[in-house]
Amino acid sequence: MKKTVLRKTIDQMEKVQRLNLINSISGYKSANLIGTQSENSSNLAVFSSVVHLGSNPPLLGMICRPATVPRHTLQNIESNGYYTINHITESMHQRAHYTSAKFEEEVSEFEACDFQEEYKTDFLAPFVKESPVQIGMEWVENIPIKVNGTLLIVGEVAQLYFEEGMQEENGELDLNYGKVVGISGLNAYHQVNKIAHYPYARPTEVPNFEDSDS
Amino acid sequence: MKKTVLRKTIDQMEKVQRLNLINSISGYKSANLIGTQSENSSNLAVFSSVVHLGSNPPLLGMICRPATVPRHTLQNIESNGYYTINHITESMHQRAHYTSAKFEEEVSEFEACDFQEEYKTDFLAPFVKESPVQIGMEWVENIPIKVNGTLLIVGEVAQLYFEEGMQEENGELDLNYGKVVGISGLNAYHQVNKIAHYPYARPTEVPNFEDSDS
């Protein structure tokens, strides 16, 4: 049996209930720390909205609400043009979650949340040393989503670092190997296990589902 | 030890290696089936780019490359204005993956991939009956991402259905309870287990990380 929630009910919900419900309905989300640099301080913020935009050129997007929490991240990206995306693991999620606390502007979340800053050649933003996947991003543009005042921040991959052993023969990274976590809703962190890997799907090679998928 | 891959190397990679690598670097992704309706046929397509845009009004986005595979999905959304987002579970992932095969236009992936269509009152697109979370979406707009010709499809939640028992006291859905899976790269499906749930983060309530996070 399913519960029905129509739009009118969503609009009339108590605010925190609605936040928790709607933030959970898209499915599992990526768990990343965004590293940036201002004139006075480094900055680190947890994001669950990083999304693949294309592989050639290599482009990633992320959603940002300008008026609220990650405003230092946005300001820093706009002013220096570089940022880093760092994967969160099973041993990092608690510290990563607390980067979302509204610290004073001069406080670095690297220090407040016990992460090590790492600087690499030719790159003006800090990486998280502990992360098994570190991506150096060059800002392309912010695309406004006018209907609710959010932004899609678009960037190109400039540098990529990952643990030796994570890459599979076909080129992809084994995120399980790196103990990367997923997020659901606003506050839940998940351990992840691969259960299937399929070939590129062709209409002539569709399996007999009655036998296989259970 | 980490492996370094600079942008120049990514640009020179063999195409399939680059596709697999760059599609895997954003982290875990949501696993959804998008249901649409054309004049002649229903349509179903696997997507891993559904992203939360806001909760009031309740808005979700997804990334679409107009020139390639999910073109029927895009055409149908633009012509009738409605679509559904349906979560993929541990018993659905193989069938869901094969919706990405390029079937002829008159073939419904519901039939080809053995899913049951479900129609609900006041809604012009088909839901996937098997899904524990079904979202009826009303199209708002397509936002062009000019740098690579992709689109961000923006929609409002019009109707929401989920299995009784999935909703927690704070309002959010327990996706583990629904046996919802996650995706990495282009072809890998993952089973997911919650390992932590934290309160809203306040600077005055940051834990002592040395004791807790291991």
Textual characterization of the structure:
The structure is a homodimer of 214-residue chains. Chain A has 214 residues and is α+β, with helices and mostly antiparallel strands. Chain A has helices spanning 7-12, 15-24, 71-80, 93-97, 109-112, 209-212, and strands at 2-6, 29-30, 32-37, 42-47, 51-55, 58-64, 82-87, 117-118, 127-128, 133-145, 150-163, 182-184, 188-197. In chain A, strand 3 and strand 4 form a beta hairpin. The longest helix of chain A has 10 residues, at 15-24. The interface between A and B is large, with 125 and 124 residues. Strand 13 (188-197) of chain A pairs antiparallel with strand 13 of chain B, so a sheet runs across the interface.
Number of H/I helices of chain A: 6
Strand order of the largest sheet of chain A: 4-3-7-10-11-6-5
Low-pLDDT residue spans of chain A: none
Would you tell me the overall average pLDDT of chain A? Answer: 94
Radius of gyration of chain A: 19 Å
Biggest sheet features of chain A: 7 strands, antiparallel
- Provide the helix percentage of chain A: 10-25%
Using a beta-carbon cutoff below 8 angstroms, give the protein chain pair with the largest interface and the number of residues from each chain.
A-B, 125 and 124 residues
Q: Which structural class do the helices and strands of chain A define?
A: alpha+beta
Number of strands of chain A: 13
Share of β-strand residues of chain A: 35-45%
- What's the assembly state of these chains? homodimer
Quote the distance from N terminus to C terminus of chain A. Answer: 21 Å
Taken in chain order, the helices and strands of chain A follow as EHHEEEEEHEHHEEEEEEH
- Approximate shape of chain A: globular
